[in-house]
Request: fold
Amino acid sequence: MNKSIYSGPVFEMATKQFERVADHLQILEMDRDRLLYPKRAIAVSCPIHRDDGRTEVYQGYRVQHHLTLGPTKGGTRFAPSVDIGEVAALAIWMSWKCALAGLPYGGAKGGITVDPYSLSPRELQALSRRYMQEMIPFVGPHTDVMAPDMGTNEQIMAWFMDTYSMYQGQTINEIVTGKPISTGGTLGRREATGRGVAYLVGRALEHLGIAAGNATAIVQGFGNVGSVTAYSLAERGVKIVGVSDHTAAYYDPAGLDVGELQRHIAERGRFSGFSAQSLIDPSELLVRTCDVLVPAAIEQVITGDNASQLKCRILAEGANGPTTPEADSILDQRGGEIFVLPDILCNSGGVIVSYFEWVQDLQRLFWEEAEVFDRLHRILERSFQQTIARARRDRISHRMAAMAIGVSVVQSAKRTRGLFP
Ligand code: GLU
Reply:
């Protein structure tokens, strides 16, 4: 039974995943709600002046899942589909992700229900600043630290930081991560998620005895995560045979030129019009043959309908929540056929380097890029090893293993701190 204000397919998915893990960990019924339900949710109306003189109001949200380990941490999404249920699910996933990586954070997520491409640059700035302004009473460097997500970028993080700082009367870089370097950002944050995905794919290929130079990959989504993943995989010798964004999907078994794709995006802002020859139906992209399939777009794209048709050896989840619990059951039935790098492991490079950015901002001491990636790889390596060891020990899927580790960290901290008052 849903005992909260949160609803919708994505929240139901996060709940179902949690129930499965809670059953596996034999968490008592009475402890489950305390672990699952978010501590706080903030809903705000954000009015702005449109360029044509009208006033328009956009709905914004921020969900802070738990405060047991430190401040909450997570991205801000600008997309038409954003609602409180989706934001809550994404916040919950952030908690398990941070705990698996050993970061001193609970999970959070925020968002505005808006198509950011429908706004002019001035309108986008006005909306970003108004959203942060409405959130000021509820966030802080030791309370809740925002970051980018779908539909937001470094520039928006700089506006968030500036708005918060102007109200505090001093520059507070550590309020937000994923900022440009010029405003207290860290080297490596922009590439961190995609490079982390590529690092873990490299480890999975090694594990399966496949040489990167013989491997092929399909990447769904070409935003920050998808594009950097494609680029980093290509750098490792992997042949990119399929890509897509929200406007078009391309597949060519002979390989696509990632540099050309990036140039096309830089010029046109979208994939459509790239190549008539390799154009395919977007729904087919995920079920084409490849060694590495990287969903790096939105939630719930691998479902009960297509999971049995996947023809990859490795499923590397760059997006949050791309695989539904129904699809998980099918992948489980397929045994070890597909090596899954679950989202909370696979895309954790982003929040790990966000953590490094926050630490550097707090200390006013900035690192070399080599230090950022060296530390990132060490954390990813530990999480990777722990996940596959736990899966083997308990005879469970990698997702269950990764979540079991994350949930146990939060559960144990809650138990040790006790219930106040
Ligand atoms: N939005 C990213 C995620 O889903 C990054 C969050 C962060 O850096 O705090 O993991």
